Amino acid sequence: MRLVFFGPPGGGKGTQAQRVSKDAKAAHIATGDLLREAKAKGTPAGKKAAEYMDRGALVPDEVVNAVLRERLSQPDAKDGYLLDGYPRTVAQAASLEKLLAEMKVPPEKYVFISVPEKLIEERILLRRSCKKCGRVYNLKYNPPPKPDRCECGGELFQRPDDSAEKLRTRLDAYKRDTLPVIERLEKEGKLSVIEAGASGLDEVEALVRGALGLPLASKKK
Ligand code: AP5
After folding, report:
1. pLDDT digits (tens, 9 = 90+) for 61-92
2. Of 2, 36, 71, 88, which one is the catalytic site residue?
3. Segment 18-35, tens digit of pLDDT
């Protein structure tokens, strides 16, 4: 499938993408992950991205567009993709539309995971990610086997942009730059909206699977 997931920071896009991408036969492409990888490798794009990510601001479109274009050209994305965290600005949406039309692989579905702002801080501040496999936990809602260890044995860490102060900057960018993209898709009747505020991870997964026409997950995560 060819999918685009939207939602506020900490809304659960990455968690749900990890859960459904295999069944959707879609390569999970998260621009946040791509930029963090570039940053860790110290590439020119990574160094530029770090200036913005470290304060919770959006990375300039030309940097993200180049990273995304490169990733979408890889073989595993040919049969399907799940974009997570892109597009995030009206200009990125236009650039994506053009790129995917050129590649003849337009999105089939847009999914918006909607979560009220008051629930987001706790999710962000208690998030832990695995250095080894990338799995995402929450110390309260989706706890790891040990507070600092993943199921795979990898060490857990807290993202440097997951502070209350940086979250405010990220939420401002989301409202100013990303909501207009979401509102346009909704007006055009292209958006599946998942109300994910009060629901746990498994319930949200069931709603996402329903919206995508995928069978329900057979085993507990
Ligand atoms: P990115 O990594 O994309 O961050 P984000 O959009 O802020 O989203 P998150 O990864 O924080 O949240 P998520 O929705 O994936 O939530 P998750 O599933 O982890 O981007 C980081 C930065 O990179 C940006 O600030 C920007 O600088 C840059 N960037 C990236 N893309 C860009 C672009 N296109 N243009 C410009 N700059 C870009 O869940 C969060 C927590 O909640 C977890 O702990 C999870 O376990 C928990 N949780 C999930 N679902 C539930 C539930 N139903 N109930 C309870 N807890 C839940």
Report:
1. 999 999 999 999 999 998 899 999 999 999 99
2. 88
3. 999 999 999 999 999 999
Residue 40 lies in a domain: no
Task: Name the residue with the closest Cα to ligand 1, atom 48.
Answer: 12
**Is 33 a member of any domain?**
no
- The answer to whether residues 129 and 10 touch, using CB atoms and an 8 Å cutoff, is no
User: Residue 188 sits in which domain range?
Assistant: 2-26+79-212
Q: Is 176 a catalytic residue?
A: no
Indicate yes or no: pTM above 0.85.
yes
Residue tagged active-site, from 48, 109, 149, 159: 159
Burial code (b: 16+ CB inside 10 Å, e: under 16) for 9-22 equals bbbbbbbbbbbbbe
Can you give the CATH number for the domain in which 13 is found?
3.40.50.300
Is-catalytic flag, 127? yes
- Nearest residue to 32 via CA among 125, 18, 79, 90: 18
Most informative mutation of 128, 141, 159 for ligand 1 (most atoms within 8 A of CB): 141
> Does residue 59 form part of some domain?
no
Q: Is residue 124 part of a domain?
A: yes
Q: How far is the CA of 56 from the centre of ligand 1 (A)?
A: 11
